[in-house]
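Blinded run. Sample ID left blank on purpose so nobody reads anything into the name before looking at the predicted structure. Input follows.
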Amino acid sequence: MKLKKLAFRALGGLMSVALVACMLTSCSKSGSGDKLVESVPASACFVMKFNPKQVVENMGCSVDNGKIVLSEKISNAIKTQAGAPALSAVNNFLTYTEGINLDAVVLFTTSDRGRDMALATTISDAETVKKHLKEIVGNEKEKDGFTVYDIEDGGVIAVNDDMLWVAEKLSVIQKYIEDAASGNISSLAGVADVIAADNALAFVALMPNIVDGHTAKEAEEELLKEGVPAGLAADLASVVDCYVCASVKLNGNAADGEAYILDKDGKRKEFGKIVNVIDTDVLKNIPADANVVAATGNIADEEIKGLIAQKYNELKSDPYGADAALGFGFLAELDGPAAIGFDMSSLINCDLSQFFTMSENELSKMVLTNLKFALTAHYPADVVNRFSEYVCSTLQSQGEAPEAVADGFHKVAVPDLFDMYFGNKNGYFTITNYNGEGDCTALADKFAGKRAVIYSRSDVNPTLAELGWNFGSEGMIWLEDDAIKSHIELTGTDANYLQAIIEPLTDPANIEKLMSMFSSLDKRVYDSGSEYEFDYDYDSVYEDQEAIPELEY
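Blinded prediction complete.
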């Protein structure tokens, strides 16, 4: 009897923790309205909003009055692998979220060290929620207007008429409710909008609360002491008075992200103007079929340019700073856009299973010989020529003999891999491993008007297609005047983003193929003499121990 009781308590504790974890890790619009936003004190340092409903629905499942209903494919996979009783048990467990509004769950703290973390969400049916919590947690008691459940491994769950809270202690919850009554984040311009928006995940770091006791003026003074120019010091120090915000939204087969900084008036800081808008002319030196392209405009902020130039001049006169000076020189004299691109089409379309049977040397050689790349940056003509001459003289000093293939453009052989080309190409200093026209200007519309961009695309890989991942992808991260944004979209499929990734794993045949591939990898590592093996000289250890005199007490 005692064993049965102990087992029930263990299961109850596990399920209560799993319930909380589900709410924390599962991530649509904040249907809970202002009630949830107004439960977060204005003194909060960090706030995260999760949207379990948006994630569950993007996985191809659904939510019915808080209850998660599995998709047919996931249900069939559980039934096939574990049996009908297991599926029934899982579905029964998922009903324990009934009555909880899964479209918005907030996690926050007022401690800059993350102490006294609290989770809060609204509920639509308090009695149903209490019934489920009593079943899986137990320890139900009434205290100060809450129905409280003690979690066996620490912490409490507290429920009233329309809210559910999870924290270390009930006193933490009571303090936050009291603090929010005095002032909550809905009073902070722009911050409440981030939390209440239609996102799967939103995050706010409230910098004024994190650096409590330190003013922007003090931070500015410290920067000035370090030699940072006045205007730049003021801009950097102003972040002390700002809110750092970020969010991710799932929308069909795409995921969108955004990060920005709000000042106290809710206006976005235009930090992106540190660099100029990209001149898409730079793309003409990038491989036409590039799968990955990164580009940026040159530095626009005059004070930052001045700092770089100052450092460049200091290092030029330092006999030990030549290598560092070269890097600062590339930045200091850049007068236009810069870009790097990789054409990895042959690698993306190859049979991935062969990677698991190659040695490290074979793998490295295959990648390098099947890769096209180009690095290109715009400089004044005399600087381009100077850089080209520098590379030539460096190679010659190492016994290499660069060959001129065009006016200002040279090549040098990299044995067993490819020929490396460098020099003036279309007015840009360029380094590449192929001698041909690049012209990736078909992507110009994706880079136009942006200040920095990382773009990638991938076609369907035949090996992954056999495992059910029969889609490609296209994505970008870019810098605008006042935000960093991202967009990743699956191509060649109508399935939702998470659904397309997860559903192939519901097929036992796909799992078996994956396990076989990983087994091949393990065997290769084992056969090659894993780097995890090492010799341990026990004799030397014992010798050292013997050399230590015994202590007398």
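Unblinding after everyone has recorded impressions. The CA atoms of residues 282 and 473 lie 24 Å apart.
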